[in-house]
């Protein structure tokens, strides 16, 4: 464990833990909202096929195009077909796009691709992997940020620069990228089955810009992000923001199909000023199988708030080495087993159960990890009998 990592995790924990407690005390209705959200998400898992069908139908009805990818390779093919010969692409942070290897794939094809989330942008220029599901550059101290920006973006920035000076340098660069981007790729915090709407929560404004400035918006996400209604989608973004430590969020974005206007004789005309195309790419990649498993399905309730990371002694020691980015930490270890079939990190869990105590979705993470271990041992035993 490097001393830089120790310092970084210590600073982030010190910021996150009191902030979440303060917000929960100030907004007590969040407690009942998170309980309702868990119930709504379980309803979807009980009827996943039906909800996928409803969501795709609703997207089509709103003038968008819905795609269902069985795995990461199929998702990359779909994105390729949508982008075609277009060259300039911007991305807002998406764990599922990372899982599907979309940024790297597009860069390998010679496209001009830029992450617009500050942390992701830093990782891109530093050629490093995310260390936390929300605060992706959590392993980097302010000083490290300064050194990377000095080397890759702006020589006037260094490790003594203030966070505001660093943010201003990144902002100048990204504003130029928004002007030229032809395609914007986002993830989704939630997808409403009744309306086909995608809900996204953020503070930086980059998701709003990525989903509105380019003429084509592609939202790439997992089928686990489907919730029954738009009301449930709002619950998910509220709870995600609160337990991530930023409530109220600066922006909640909702996209339902391409841009439209009803100003001419109340007829809905598409497009208006914003994107003329909206695509939703839903990815299975092991989720369907997990939903059918009574134990593993709990992991699909995760809303990626990242709170369990701060309560986990194994993660605090190992950082992103525990799991495989973007899925490290307690939730990431469950997710590696689901989307990559890689259960090795589960065996390093010490079962402190701090993660279970803090999870807003009441996921019994230690139990899921114990079940993953049990499944491994059973396979080994069966293999030995042959
Ligand atoms: S497992 Fe729970 S605490 Fe951890 S990221 Fe998911 S919802 Fe948040």
Written account of the structure:
- This protein is 50% helix and 15% strand.
- By secondary structure, the chain is α/β, with parallel strands linked by helices.
- The chain folds into two domains: 285 residues, NagB/RpiA/CoA transferase-like (Rossmann fold), CATH 3.40.50; 93 residues, Alpha-helical ferredoxin (Fumarate Reductase Iron-sulfur Protein, Chain B, domain 2), CATH 1.10.1060.10.
- It has a six-stranded parallel beta sheet, sandwiched between helices.
- A hairpin with a 5-residue loop joins strand 5 and strand 6.
- Helix 15 runs parallel beside helix 17.
- The model has no long low-confidence stretch (mean pLDDT 95).
- Iron/sulfur cluster binds next to helix 13 and helix 15.
Secondary-structure map:
Blueprint: H1 3-26, H2 29-46, H3 48-61, E1 65-69, H4 72-83, E2 88-91, H5 95-99, H6 102-108, E3 112-115, H7 118-126, H8 142-152, H9 163-180, E4 183-186, E5 190-192, E6 198-202, H10 206-212, E7 216-222, E8 226-227, H11 230-244, E9 251-255, E10 261-264, E11 267-269, E12 277-283, H12 287-291, H13 307-310, H14 313-318, E13 323-324, E14 327-328, H15 329-339, H16 354-358, H17 365-385
Parallel strand pairs: 1-12, 2-3, 2-4, 4-7, 5-8, 7-12
Antiparallel strand pairs: 5-6, 6-9, 10-11, 13-14
Helix pairs in contact: 2-11, 8-9, 15-17
This protein binds iron/sulfur cluster.
């Amino acid at each position: 464990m490097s001393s830089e990592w120790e310092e970084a995790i210590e600073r982030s924990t010190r910021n996150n833990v009191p902030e979440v407690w303060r917000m929960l005390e100030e907004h007590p209705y969040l407690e009942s909202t998170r309980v309702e959200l868990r119930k709504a998400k379980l309803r979807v898992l009980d009827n996943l096929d039906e909800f996928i069908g409803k969501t795709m139908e609703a997207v089509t009805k709103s003038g968008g195009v819905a795609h269902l990818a069985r795995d990461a390779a199929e998702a990359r093919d779909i994105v390729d077909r949508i982008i075609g010969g277009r060259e300039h692409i911007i991305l807002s942070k998406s764990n599922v796009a990372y899982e599907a290897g979309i940024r790297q794939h597009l860069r390998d094809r010679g496209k001009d691709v830029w992450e617009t989330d500050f942390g992701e942008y830093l990782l891109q220029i530093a050629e490093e992997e995310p260390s936390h599901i929300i605060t992706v550059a959590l392993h980097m101290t302010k000083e490290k940020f300064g050194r990377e920006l000095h080397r890759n973006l702006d020589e006037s920035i260094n490790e003594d620069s203030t966070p505001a000076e660093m943010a201003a340098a990144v902002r100048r660069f990204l504003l130029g990228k928004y002007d030229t981007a032809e395609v914007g790729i986002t993830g989704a915090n939630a997808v409403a089955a009744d309306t086909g709407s995608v809900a996204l929560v953020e503070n930086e404004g980059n998701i709003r810009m990525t989903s509105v400035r380019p003429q084509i918006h592609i939202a790439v996400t997992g089928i686990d992000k489907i919730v029954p209604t738009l009301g449930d989608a709002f619950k998910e973004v509220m709870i995600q923001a609160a337990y991530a430590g930023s409530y109220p969020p600066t922006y909640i974005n909702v996209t339902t199909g391409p841009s439209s206007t009803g100003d001419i004789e109340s007829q809905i005309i598409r497009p208006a000023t914003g994107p003329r195309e909206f695509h939703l790419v839903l990815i299975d990649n092991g989720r369907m199988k997990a939903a059918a498993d009574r134990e593993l399905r709990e992991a699909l309730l995760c809303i990626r708030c990242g709170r369990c990371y701060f309560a986990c002694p194994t993660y605090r020691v190992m950082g992103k080495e525990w799991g495989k980015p973007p899925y490290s930490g307690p939730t990431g270890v469950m997710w590696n087993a689901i989307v990559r079939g890689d259960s090795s990190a589960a065996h390093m869990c010490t079962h402190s159960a701090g993660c279970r105590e803090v999870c807003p979705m009441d996921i019994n993470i230690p139990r899921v990890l114990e079940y993953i271990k049990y499944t491994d041992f059973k396979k080994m035993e069966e293999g030995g009998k042959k």
